[in-house]
Amino acid sequence: xVQLVESGGGLVQAGGSLRLSCAASGxxxxxxxIGWFRQAPGKEREGGSCISPVGRDTYYADSVKGRFTxxxxxAKSTAYLQMNSLNPEDPxxxxxxxxxxxxxxxxxxxxxxxxxxxxNYWGQGTxxxxxx
Length: 132
What we know:
Blueprint: E1 3-7, E2 10-13, E3 18-25, E4 32-39, E5 46-51, E6 58-60, E7 68-73, E8 78-83, E9 92-100, H1 103-110, E10 121-122, E11 126-131
Parallel strand pairs: 2-11
Antiparallel strand pairs: 1-3, 3-8, 4-5, 4-9, 5-6, 7-8, 9-10, 9-11
């Protein structure tokens, strides 16, 4: 059974940091791209970052560029999102998702945020709250 489980969310002060983890099972991160998405109340789901299966290529939306870092540890079947300098625009439920390895090429070619419709597997989400 394919499963993604996020963890690491919580409450942090503005300017602080959190590291989200996404534990994958039932498939290999060697074969899938990973994306991190977020959805705030009343807003559409936003694709913030994605990474190719072997971690060679990454993409960041302008809203997180320079503050967030996506990575994977394929040996541990875990993806990470290091979030620094969190601000009041960042609170949301954060989701990790896995999709066919070629989809990051679309993102990099168009330089638009990852398309959630292209990702096959999703975690349940983890809440991130930022206090001012």
